[in-house]
Design brief:
Keywords: Cell membrane, G-protein coupled receptor, Membrane, Olfaction, Receptor, Sensory transduction, Transducer, Transmembrane, Transmembrane helix. One of its GO terms (molecular function) is G protein-coupled receptor activity. Helix content is 73%, strand content 2%. It is built from 12 helices and 2 strands. It has helices at residues 26-53, 60-77, 80-89, 96-129, 134-137, 140-158, 161-166, 183-186, 195-227, 232-265, 273-296, 298-315; strands spanning 13-15, 93-95. The model is unreliable at 1-7 and 312-317 (pLDDT under 50).
């Protein structure tokens, strides 16, 4: 990273950190984190399997839910195994190219998830505000195209990321402030002008997260306007179909926006707050989303209860 005469050099590797000040405890803290990761993977796989095997769930809302579950598995898997290696085996070194790959995966998958959440909001808007057109607007081929568009959008927004990072010379510390690689974390180690990276990051956040959250808010304002004109029974039914998605939106956007604000305006770089928020952002949504949809979605809840009922009866003598 730095030559003996202090000259600039290209980065060859970075040092990831666990939990500063809790080095002795992080070995044991890794066990509940690993348990949460396994819960996230199993929970989201269960949702995918239920939707796939239940033909009556082959509707746009549940297909989008499968996309969300798949992305949650990929997002948590892109960071958690590496984090476990740090906590358990003190494996803190990550090669520059591996860091770039992890960074690209985390940011692009997050962009895809934001797009899927927007698609789910659009699905609820059409289903509630234009119910007679729902079947013709959100056909299976169109839902598939939306899924492909989410992948293309997420990857294309992040395509310049490796280029903007590789152009930077690094002559400062090679120690990152997280347990995995993030763009805003890596670029701060550069000893050159990073205004291009900052502008690029702001453009991505505004055009993806900012735009998506604005359109989701607009869709729910229109939904609320329509629902207020319905009967009480119809209002309860309409709100019931939206609760799970609203929870998923808050679970995803609140940690993401909070982490971005801390990185851009935070003063204390040695604080545990950004690290805890970063770990929360990548782990809590994959854990909570299948629980929320399992509890609040009648069809999925009934299928899970039937599975446990069959398992219990099978194990009886």
């Amino acid at each position: 990273m730095v030559d003996t005469n202090g000259s600039e050099s290209s980065a060859t590797y970075f040092i990831l950190i666990g939990l500063p000040g809790l080095e002795k405890a992080q070995f044991w803290l890794a066990f509940p984190l690993c348990s949460l990761y396994l819960i996230a993977v199993l929970g989201n796989l269960t949702v995918i399997c239920i939707v796939r095997t239940e033909h009556r769930l082959h509707e746009p809302m549940y297909i989008f839910l499968c996309m969300l579950s798949g992305l949650d598995i990929l997002i948590s898997t892109s960071s958690m195994p590496r984090m476990m290696a740090i906590f358990w085996f003190n494996s803190t070194t990550i090669q520059f190219d591996a860091c770039l790959l992890q960074m690209f995966a985390i940011h692009s998958l997050s962009g895809m998830e934001s797009t899927v959440l927007l698609a789910m909001a659009f699905d609820r808007y059409v289903a509630i505000c234009h119910p007679l057109r729902h079947a013709t607007v959100l056909t299976l081929p169109r839902v598939t195209k939306i899924g492909v568009a989410a992948v293309v959008r997420g990857t294309s927004l992040m395509a310049p990321l490796p280029i903007f990072i590789k152009r930077l010379p690094f002559c400062r510390s090679n120690i990152l402030s997280h347990s995995y690689c993030l763009h805003q974390d890596v670029m701060k180690l550069a000893c050159a002008d990073i205004r291009v990276n900052i502008i690029y990051g702001l453009i991505v956040i505004i055009s993806a997260i900012g735009l998506d959250s604005l359109l989701i808010s607009l869709s729910y304002l229109l939904i609320l306007k329509t629902v207020l004109g319905l009967t009480r029974e119809a209002q309860a039914k309409a709100f019931g179909t939206c609760v799970s998605h609203v929870c998923a939106v808050f679970i995803f956007y609140v940690p993401f926006i909070g982490l971005s604000m801390v990185h851009r305006f935070g003063k204390r770089h040695d604080s545990l707050l950004p690290i805890i928020m970063a770990n929360t952002y990548l782990l809590v949504p994959p854990v909570l989303n299948p629980i929320v949809y399992g509890v609040k979605t009648k069809e999925i809840r009934q299928r899970i209860l039937r599975l446990f009922h069959v398992t219990t009866h099978t194990s009886d003598p």
